[in-house]
Amino acid sequence: MDKEEYKQYYLSVYRHSxxxxxxxxxxxxxxxxxxxxxxxxxxxxGFYYDFLLPRPCVNEDFPLIENKMxxxxxxxxxxxxxxxxKDEALEIFKGQKFKEExxxxxxxxxxxxxxxxxxxxxxxxxxxxxxxxxxxxxxxxQVRAVSGSxxxxxxxxxxxxRIYVYAFPxxxxxxxxxxxxxxxxxxxxxxxxPQLDLFMFDDTAPGMPYWLPRGWKMYQALxxxxxxxxxxHGYTEISAPLVNKKKLWLISGHWxxxxxxxxxxxxxxxxxxxxxxxxxxxENLQDSAAKxxxxxxxxxxxxxxxxxxxxxxxxPMNCPNAMMTYKRRVHSYKExxxxxxxxDVLHRKEKSGQMNGLFRVQEFRQDDDHxxxxxxxxxSEIADIISIADEIYGTFGVTYRAELSTRPEDFMGDxxxxxxxxxxxKKILDExxxxxxxxxxxxxxxFYGPKIDLQIKDALGREWxxxxxQLDFQLPHNFGLTYQTKEGGTEMPVVIHRAIYGxxxxxxxxxxxxFKGAFPFWMSPMQVGVVPIRTEHNxxxxxxxxxxxxxxxxxxxxxxxxxxxxxxxxFKTMKDPYILVLGDKExxxxxxxVTIRGQKQQLHDLPLExxxxxxxxxxxxxxxxxxxxxx
Length: 631
Fold this sequence. Notes:
By secondary structure, the chain is of the alpha+beta class.
C-alpha cells in the first residue's frame, strides 16, 4: 500500500468510525427509544448518517451534536467487533426496523459483524474501525447540513433526516476545506446565473431552463465555436424530429433500456381508434377557470385494454434519428466516414430530487455527432476526435483525463463484437496516453457499446464528465445499415457516438463556476459596455457601437442622462470584459478609454479602429485572458 492509498484507507476508517460516534450522539440527544438509525457511509469530504427522528433536526442542534460527539470521544471507549448469527443480530437490533430489514435481506450464510462503541451503543457494520475512541482525539469535524432522504432511495418509503458532517485528519485540513467550500459557493452557477441574467427556472417547466437574452448570446457563441471546429474536421450538420413513434425506440433498443427516462405522448388517433366513449366536455370548458375539467373513460373502453401503437416519445438521444438519416439511401465505402453532427433539443425524465441547476436538467442540447465508418477507419477517426477535444478543452484552459467504460450487465448484441470493440478502444488509449495512463470502469459502458469518457478538471480541482466517445456495433445492426464495399458486396458500418461539451446546459454550468462568471472575451454574453459621460457624447457613442457591431462584437451602451459611475458599475456587475468611457477628448480624437475587467490599469487614447481590431483578434483566437495590447 503506497502513501496515498494508506491516506485514503486511514480517512475511510476514521470517517466511518466517526459516523458511529454521530449515531451514538444522536441517540443520547434525541432519546434512544425515539430514534431509528439507518445507514451512515463515508463520502468525499466526510460522512452522513440517516435517521428517523422524533422531531426535525435544525441548525441550532448542530453545535449540540458536535459537542456531544467530542464528549463521547473523550470517554476513550473501546470498540469491539463481534461476529453474530442472523438470529442474534435480529435480537440485538430488535425494534430498529431499518437494521432489521437489512439483516433479513442478507443471505443465510452471510458473515454478520456488529461493532460496540463502549457498552451502550452497537451498530451493524462490516468495518474496519478504530480500536478506541481516543484515536479520534485529533480528528476535526463539523456538522454541515441536514436534508431529507428516503429509505433506500424509495419515495414511497420512510422519509428520513440525513445529517452531513465534514471530517478531516486535523483542524488545518478542515479549515482549508471550509475555505474551498466558501469559494465553491461564490462560484455556484445557480447563484451567478440569475445574478448575471443568464438563465432562469420556473416550476411550470421543472428542470427546463429559460435562456435569457444574455445567456442565449453566450450559448450561441459556444455553438458557433463548436460548428467552426466541426466544419474544419469535415462534419455535416443535420436536424431531426424531436418526437418519434414508439417503433423507432423499439428498433433502437431505447424502449427496453431507457423508456422510464422518456417523456411519452399518447397519440390522439389511438384514442379515436379505440372507440372510446369520450363525453362532450365543451360546455364544461366554459367555466374551466372556476374548476378543473376531467375527462373520464368507461372502464370497459378498449383504450384500457390495448397499448396504443401510435404512442410517441420525446427523444432523449439523437442516435436513432441519425441511423434513419444514414439509411435513407445506399452508401459507398468511398463516402465513409460520414459525420452527422446534431444540436437538437433532448428531453430526459428525472426525479425531482435529482435535478440540480444546469447540472441535471430535463431539457438540453448536446454537441452530438454520429460518425459512420468502416472498421479500418476506427482508430484514425477516434484520434481525430481526441484532437478536437484537446483543442476545445485547451481553449477553456481545462485539463482532462480519459476513462474506458466496458460492457455492462444489460448489454445488447454479441459478446465477441463487444470484445472486439473494447480491444480497439484500449489500443487507441494505449497509444495516446500510454499503458496505464487512463482508468478502466468495468461494466459502465452504454448498453450498445463501450465508451471513452473525458473527465475535465475545473479551477477548484473538481472533475466533471463531459466528453464521450462511444463505439457502437449494435445500432447499425438493429437498423440494417450497410455500405457497398470496394469489391461490390455489402458490409455493416460501425457508428461512433461523440460529444465534447456533452450537455451544453451542464457544460455552461461548469464553466460559469470555472470562470466565476468572468468569461473569456469571445464567449462573454456582452463583450463591451459603452459609457458616454454626458448626453452630448451619445452621437460619438453611436459611431463606436456601429463600428464594433460591424466587427461582430457584442456591445451594450447606456445613453441615459445619469451619473457615469452608475453606468460603469452596472457593466462591471455584469462582468463585461471591456468598458469604454467616452468624453470630449475621445470624441474629438476618435479614441476610446478602456477599463479592463479585473485590472487596475486603464488604457487611454486608444484609436477606435485599433480597439476594434483587438476585439476582432480575441474573437478569432478564442483567447482566454483579456489583453491590453492592440495589433
